[in-house]
Amino acid sequence: MAHIAIERTHSLSMDAAKSAVQSAADSLASKYGLESAWDGDTLKFSRSGVDGALAVSADKVAIDVQLGMMFAPFKGMLEDEIARSVDKALGGADSVA
Q1: Global pTM?
Q2: C-beta of residue 5 within 8 angstroms of C-beta of residue 97
Q3: Tens-digit pLDDT profile for residues 26-81
Q4: Of 22, 66, 16, which is closest to residue 42 (Cα–Cα)?
Q5: Would strands 50-56 and 60-67 be described as parallel, antiparallel, or unpaired?
Q6: How far apart are CA 52 and CA 17, in angstroms?
Q7: Angstrom distances, CA of residue 97 to CA of 5, 27, 62, 84
Q8: Across the chain, where does the E strand assignment appear?
Q9: 53 with 45: CB under 8 angstroms?
């Protein structure tokens, strides 16, 4: 399995950050057929071959994705697309990892 881990800082309120994360997830979901649901401050998403979570805190969003064998060859492309989607939704936040 391939692993993607991305963190972004933000200066949004929790509600605004969660809304931004939902927007990014909706965009990715429509393209990749992901199902998602909130569990507290974490948006969990999945589909066959992909499991992940976007955890929102007061000043950061942490993205953790596990890719199955079918998606592992596309790790770099998917990592870039996830980062761009989250950055756009958060308004161009800076990377911390």
Answers
A1: 0.85
A2: yes
A3: 988 888 899 999 999 999 999 999 999 999 999 999 999 999 999 999 999 999 99
A4: 22
A5: antiparallel
A6: 18
A7: 8, 23, 9, 14
A8: 2-9, 35-39, 42-47, 50-56, 60-67
A9: yes
